[in-house]
Automatic annotation (TrEMBL), chains A, B:
Superkingdom of the source species: Bacteria
Pfam families to which the protein is assigned, alphabetical: FLAD1_M, MoCF_biosynth
PANTHER family, per database record: NICOTINAMIDE-NUCLEOTIDE AMIDOHYDROLASE PNCC (PTHR13939), NMN AMIDOHYDROLASE-LIKE PROTEIN YFAY (PTHR13939:SF0)
Coiled-coil intervals, chain numbering: none
Alphabetical list of SUPFAM superfamilies matching this protein: Molybdenum cofactor biosynthesis proteins (SSF53218)
SMART domains: MoCF_biosynth
Residue span, MoaB/Mog domain: 1-162
Gene3D superfamilies reported for this sequence: MoaB/Mog-like domain (3.40.980.10)
Protein name, entry field: Competence/damage-inducible protein A
């Protein structure tokens, strides 16, 4: 994913789109492999698009497709693909009709939202009409969370769904330092399962959430049982030689 | 910045460190230019570190320096710099003392937290002892937000502060499409000021927050006045020929 916008890098806006896309893709069995955030700089946007679209099956972008001068994504995508950018006839019609119905001027600024690189297919915007677009394996969507979410829901539903990634969470009352060694052994035994270890700190002491993830239910369950057995063993060891 | 961790890409954890660092850097007058999020894959981490440390003045990382098998950042940094990774004597001592005082075992897993690439300088961890480290212009910090924040506060305070970026926000009751044209003219007139336009959608209609940013107070103020004059003109135009 590529999130675009100065406001994300200045701290003014705290991004909510990355986490949303991550959730939706996980449910669809598609792995999110990398995210980048770049400023409203066409050269930087184009470079990131080319790096990511070459490397991954899909690239999803958020932001920079509105009507103002700092909305540069359509031009940057055109630059990345080496194609001209102009009004997309269907997008133009949709927007023209949208504003006519509302008795609002279809200003030059609003017309910017109809601009796409040559060859783009539109992505429906059920919230506020101005469409996103798809070029090859790149899905260009709005940055406003309500619109991004609606576009993502449509786009991801249209992609081939992978086998869903299943996960099992096991609460561990000990800190990571108590379990790091034996947990690495459990991980080494279950190579098709990815076990994550997430420390929690309540201000005084650590606990850990252990999360096993796999596309295979049996293997996941086997790993989960071994994690629980490991926790019981660590707990006994910590209790040491104290009589029961 | 580079945020490291499978959990950020699966949606399990919603990142809070990017926004925090963005805020702190903005206050310090340092521009955050790019963020990447990668999984717990040493090759990917090392590649991102090398790309970002070559391109920018500083690189800040979060995550992957704990005691478990999925904490791979120290090794990835060593790989990126082409240096071996081993116990840092001061870090080892600090941690040994920390656990001895708490009558906790200094397990092999906990010892992992003393591992740094050769030549690293430590970053103090006032929250839970296990230090971060600095290699050249790369600051390697924890992913747990309380610890990341404490480390960032120390690190950023130690950097030369830039002239602070000042900002002025102007609420615009119209959608971006109404102001995109004239706003671009204001932007063209004030080249040393960056004007951002942030649409807000309340479910029915759009408004816009306009934010001008500059390191020069006079130029910022001049741009702000022109934005306000532009909004008055647009408002009059929208009211059209209706009698006052």
């Amino acid at each position: 994913m590529l999130a675009i916008g100065d406001e994300l890098l200045s701290g003014r806006t705290k991004d909510r789109n990355i986490g949303y896309l991550a959730d939706v893709l996980t449910l669809a069995g598609i792995d999110l492999k990398e995210v980048r955030i770049v400023a409203d700089e066409p050269v930087d946007i184009a470079a990131a698009i080319n790096a990511l679209r070459a490397r991954y099956t899909y690239l999803f972008t958020s932001g920079g497709i509105g009507p103002t001068h700092d909305d540069m994504t359509a031009d940057a995508v055109g630059q990345a693909f080496g194609v001209p950018v102009g009004y997309h006839p269907t997008a133009y019609e949709l927007l023209e009709k949208h504003y006519r119905q509302r008795e609002m001027d279809f200003t030059l600024a609003r017309k910017r939202m109809a601009r796409t690189p040559e060859g783009a297919l539109l992505i429906d915007n059920p919230v506020s009409t101005a469409p996103g677009f798809k070029m090859d394996n790149v899905y260009v969507m709005a940055g406003v969370p309500a619109v991004f979410q609606a576009m993502v829901n449509n786009v991801v539903a249209s992609l081939p769904q992978g086998p869903q990634i299943l996960s099992a969470a096991v609460f561990c009352p000990f800190g990571e330092g108590d379990i790091g060694g034996p947990l690495a052994q459990v991980q080494a035994k279950h190579k098709s399962v990815v076990i994550g270890s997430y420390p929690k700190f309540d201000g005084k002491s650590y606990s850990t959430e252990l999360v096993a993830r796999s596309r295979n239910e049996q293997e996941l369950e086997a790993a989960r049982l071994d994690i629980e057995a490991m926790l019981i063993a660590v707990g006994k060891e910590k209790a040491g030689s104290s009589p029961a």
